[in-house]
Amino acid sequence: MAPSETTQPAHASTFARVGLLMYTFLIIYASLYPFSNWSDIGLPLWAFLIMPMPHYWTGFDVATNVIGYLPFGMLVVFALYPHLRGLPAVIVAVFAGVMLSGSLEALQTFLPNRVSSNLDFLTNLAGTCIGAFLGAPLTHAFLEQSRLLQLRRDWFVPDAGRGLIIAGLWPLAQIYPQGYLFGHGQVMPILSNWLSEWMESPVDLVALMTRDIQLTVQEYWLAETLITAFGMIGAMLTWSILLRKQAPRPMLLLTFFAVALGVKAMANALLFSPANAVAWLTPGAKGGLLIGTMMVGGLSYAPPVAQRWLAALALVLGFIAINLVPANPYFVATLQAWTQGKFLNFNGAAHFLSIFWTFFALWFLLHPAHRLKRV
């Protein structure tokens, strides 16, 4: 084989840069969650830096802070490639970690539910440093030459970087407990809480828009069937348009779907109890999975442009439905058994994905720059 066929010119990784952007949003949301009861307690923003080290901390807290910022440091190094490599990239990544963590710890001063801490700042910085120093020597393997890159070229369309990031977040979006399977983008409760705080009186936008309509059990089943089907069709077709013609399409579609359901079951088992691992598999969800499977099976070989518009339509319809249908009373009762505790940061990040994944997917599907050609 000629050298020109094996040597690829160095180029920036869209996957790494979009991944860095989304992971930064994830850290910001997790650090400031639940975005309520902001107040000024009279301390300067940098007060956490000069306070004594906290007396009460756990190994879990330290490990969470380190692990949470480790991917950030690595992604910064990958995103800087090929303009900066090695030690200069590590230095920029560490500086970025200082600025991000320092800013968020300062903002936490205004949140009574959060505690600014110099220990958190230092452990976040430690995670960034570890990620940056790991990322520097791994740049060649991940961005220049590896089996994963070869599979990426063989199975996915050339400009699929942004789409792979967004599609890859869909299984992770299943972690946060949802009233309806694949019911992402539920913004009405958040908007209701913000309006309630602003107006200093309870506001329920869903009740106002539906005029307190009470659904029967059968109507709840139908709503869950539609929401599940729309969510599944939107996500699976988004994944499908990234695949080349010669890719093992059935295997990749089934794997993608199985991973999402596996994450959902594992999250339910950890957040509630093992007995609730598949509590989301209700009659309505089963109907939605059946409809979604038939639709995706029939459309998986359709032209990419048709898949793109149908995926966007399904996500929009699912978004409308999830924000108009009242909360499932069974889910509300189950949620009462959920205590966030030490997982506040983690659940904040999971909540971010659950809400915003639909918007990310629609941005990818509708933006003209993302209209990929299947080859």
From TrEMBL:
User: What highest taxon heads this organism's lineage?
Assistant: Bacteria
Name of the featured protein: VanZ-like domain-containing protein
Q: Which Pfam families match?
A: VanZ
Q: Is tRNA-binding set as a keyword in this record?
A: no
Query: Keyword Electron transport: yes or no?
Result: no
Residues covered by the VanZ-like domain: 30-134
Q: Where are the transmembrane segments?
A: 20-36, 56-80, 87-104, 124-143, 220-239, 251-272, 278-302, 309-328, 348-366
Q: Which UniProt keywords apply?
A: Membrane, Transmembrane, Transmembrane helix
Record the organism. Noviherbaspirillum denitrificans
